[in-house]
Each structure stands twice: as structure tokens, then as C-alpha cells.
Inverse folding.
């Protein structure tokens, strides 16, 4: 898609130039950009010429003087301005293939684009990685990337991704190593397939790449009730405990929070997670949130009786119960935790980002409270839309409740200040 403006920042150069939503940036200094990588590169200049196609079809050419590292303040509709590189795999564990029809269109997009991995932290498999990609990455010194490794066994990776190019993964990672391109690795653990000895082999191979591997995140396969019967099974307590033990032998390798919950083990201290490199994969989210909570001074009382409810995922239930125990020491404040059971996806889905409106409504509608707290990850970014296409107003209307959206899902500072 072209470089279409979605919005401009307040007080920015773009606002001064009256660049508006829907305008298209055709080129900078005569060069048509492929993506935000190009845009950021050509911004590094004190004098640029920008060609703009306005929403009325008129084309303007504007010469701009600015600081060397100053941005125009444009938010684009997409991070890439040409065709997103599609996923060519048919992974046995693909979550997109486990979704029913009728959700937001964006939830069915299967991308495998190194540019989005660099710009936004999305995971790539490198099965569509070509010489042109390598040349550009090397020339522009791009990185780090986020790579879905899953296994370094070539035959097994071909089987898991159902793509003959999948077996080249370790060769590609060695190219990263040879060219000083750092990456984060992800392993979706499928019991009986890439766990146990196969996991040990994968982690051993990654360890040989040394500090090129910034972190390794191991996450359990997610299975919904919409998935047809097949070879996959959920991670159970025994598998979770074994995985934690294998991972503990290696540096910079962390299991997601869900493994510790499944194994019945306490969430590790912050030292375990290092720099919390893969929070969005659920690795260390509970520990970061809990540690952050204890940094805030709580009031001794609130002015009048007030009842607060956390509507959360089952994964966050125990952590928030500990938070609630502390908050209930505040005079006139009552706090309860109500995890949302996912009737929509099935009981094995326990994360907040997949909670739907009807499941949320069912959980809170009969609860007596003054306010319901939900994390922003339940909503589509920059909106109040849930993944099932309904919005927060719908939930308010059908639950007859007031809601507080916690914007920073890794900090309870907003909630403490609200109290």
C-alpha cells in the first residue's frame, strides 16, 4: 500500500505544513519509499524535499529545513508502503487457522516480513528470506529481529512449518551471526513434537551462536475449540516442569509465565528475565507488573466506600489476587478479582488479549461494584474495539458497569492513582 498518512502529531512539522489524514507521501528527495525503514533513513537530513499527493488529488512539492534527526511527525497507516511479505508456511500450530469467521479482518493476516520484525517486533520464520533481503539488512545494519525458530532440526522444522524452506533456519541464523545481526528467538512448544530432547538440541544449537542470540522465549502452543482434532495436545503440568528444567541449563533462555502457572511453580524473580526482552510473548509480564505495584505508595484510605473489580485473564489471576490483598488494606476500598472464562475460544485460552465481549459481560454483569478495571490489551490499539468486532460501549450497555481501561498493561500506577 502507498505511504498514506493516518494522523499527524500535535505541534509537529507535518501539522504546520497542514499535512492531513489521507494524504500520500509520494517521495522524499525524489525517492519512492518502500517502508518506514526508508522513511527513517531519508529523514536523517537537514534539508529534504517531500512530494505529497493531497486527498483532493493535487500534488505538492515542499522543501523543508529541519534538524538532522527531527521527524515530520507523521503516523502512517502501515509500516510498509508496498506489499507485505506474506507467510508461506502452513504451521501445524498456526493460531490464525484456529479462528472462526467473523472477527476483525486484521486477525486473519499472515505476514512473514523482516521489515515488520525490525520495526514492530513481529516474529518471522525466514522461510521467504532471499538474497535481496540479506543485502539490504547488511547494507543498512538492520536489527535486532524476532525469529520464530521452534526447532533447529531441519527435518522436524519442515514438518512443523509444512514448508520445504523451513529446514534452512539454522543456516540463516548462522548468516546473522557472521554479519553481526542480533536476533531474539521464539519457540512454540508442542508436546511430543519439539519438546524434551528436541528442545535441548535446539537450545544447544542456539547457544553456539553466542551473543548474536539476545534472548530465547519458550511459549506453550495455544489450542482453541475451533481447531480440528489433530496431533497437537496442550502443555500439561509434567511437560511444563520438564521444559522449565531444560531451559534452566542455558543462558538468556526464559519460559513464558504460563509454564510456571501450569507447573504450579512460583513466578521467578525479575533477575530471571534479564532485560524483559519478550514481554509481548508473555515472558515476565506478571513479574514486571507485580514488582511495579510494590514501588507505588498506597493511600491509607479513600474518601468514601468504593468497590473495584479486576476483570482479567486466568493467567493474571494469582498475581492480581496478591495485588487485591494489598489494596484491601486501604480503608473504604474493596477489591475483587474476577477472571474471565473463555467460553468463546475454549478453556485452554487464558490470555487477556483474546477475551471477547460476551465472555466479559457474563463475568461482570452480576458483580456489585463501582468500577471494573480491564487491561488495554483486550482492545484493538488506539480504539475501544474488542477482537469480536464489538466495542466498549456495547459492554457497558449490556453489563451496566463502569470501566477503567489500564493503558500500561505492565504497570498498575494508573489504577493506584485512580484510587
Amino acid at each position: 500500500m502507498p505511504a498514506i498518512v493516518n494522523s499527524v502529531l500535535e505541534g509537529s512539522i507535518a501539522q504546520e505544513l497542514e499535512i492531513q489524514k489521507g494524504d500520500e507521501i509520494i517521495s522524499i528527495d525524489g525517492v519512492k519509499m518502500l517502508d518506514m525503514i526508508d522513511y527513517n533513513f531519508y529523514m536523517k537530513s537537514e534539508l529534504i524535499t517531500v512530494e505529497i499527493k493531497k486527498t483532493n488529488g493535487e500534488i505538492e512539492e515542499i522543501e523543508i529545513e529541519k534538524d538532522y534527526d527531527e521527524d515530520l511527525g507523521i503516523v502512517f497507516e502501515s509500516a510498509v508502503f508496498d506489499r507485505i511479505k506474506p507467510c508461506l508456511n502452513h504451521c501445524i500450530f498456526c493460531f490464525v487457522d484456529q479462528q472462526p469467521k467473523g472477527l476483525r479482518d486484521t486477525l486473519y493476516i499472515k505476514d512473514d516480513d523482516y521489515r515488520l520484525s525490525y520495526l514492530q517486533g513481529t516474529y518471522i520464520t525466514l522461510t521467504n528470506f532471499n538474497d535481496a533481503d540479506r543485502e539490504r539488512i547488511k547494507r543498512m545494519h538492520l536489527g535486532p529481529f524476532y525469529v520464530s525458530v521452534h526447532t533447529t532440526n531441519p527435518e522436524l522444522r519442515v514438518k512443523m512449518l509444512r514448508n520445504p524452506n523451513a529446514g534452512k533456519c539454522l543456516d540463516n541464523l548462522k548468516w546473522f551471526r557472521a554479519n553481526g545481526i542480533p536476533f531474539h528467538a521464539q519457540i512454540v512448544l508442542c508436546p511430543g513434537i519439539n519438546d524434551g530432547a528436541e528442545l535441548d538440541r535446539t537450545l544447544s544449537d542456539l547457544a553456539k551462536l553466542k551473543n548474536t542470540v539476545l534472548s530465547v522465549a519458550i511459549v506453550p502452543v495455544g489450542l482453541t475449540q475451533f481447531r480440528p482434532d489433530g496431533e497437537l495436545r496442550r502443555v500439561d503440568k509434567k511437560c511444563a516442569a520438564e521444559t522449565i528444567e531444560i531451559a534452566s541449563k542455558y543462558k538468556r533462555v526464559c519460559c513464558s509465565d504460563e509454564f510456571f502457572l501450569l507447573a504450579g511453580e512460583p513466578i521467578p524473580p525479575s533477575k530471571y528475565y534479564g532485560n524483559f526482552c519478550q514481554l509481548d510473548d508473555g515472558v515476565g509480564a506478571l513479574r514486571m507488573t507485580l514488582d511495579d505495584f510494590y514501588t507505588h505508595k498506597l493511600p491509607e484510605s479513600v474518601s468514601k466506600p468504593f468497590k473495584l473489580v479486576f476483570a482479567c485473564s486466568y493467567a493474571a489471576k494469582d498475581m492480581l489476587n496478591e495485588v487485591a490483598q494489598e489494596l484491601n488494606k486501604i480503608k473504604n476500598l474493596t477489591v475483587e478479582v474476577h477472571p474471565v472464562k473463555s467460553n468463546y475460544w475454549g478453556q485452554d485460552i487464558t490470555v487477556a488479549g483474546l477475551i471477547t465481549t460476551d465472555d466479559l459481560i457474563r463475568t461482570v454483569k452480576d458483580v456489585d461494584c463501582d468500577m471494573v478495571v480491564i487491561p488495554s490489551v483486550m482492545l484493538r490499539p488506539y480504539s475501544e474495539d474488542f477482537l469480536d468486532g464489538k466495542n466498549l460501549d456495547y459492554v457497558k450497555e449490556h453489563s451496566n458497569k463502569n470501566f477503567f481501561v489500564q493503558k500500561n498493561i505492565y504497570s498498575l500506577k494508573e489504577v493506584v492513582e485512580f484510587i
Q: What stands out?
A: The first strand starts at residue 5 and ends at 8.
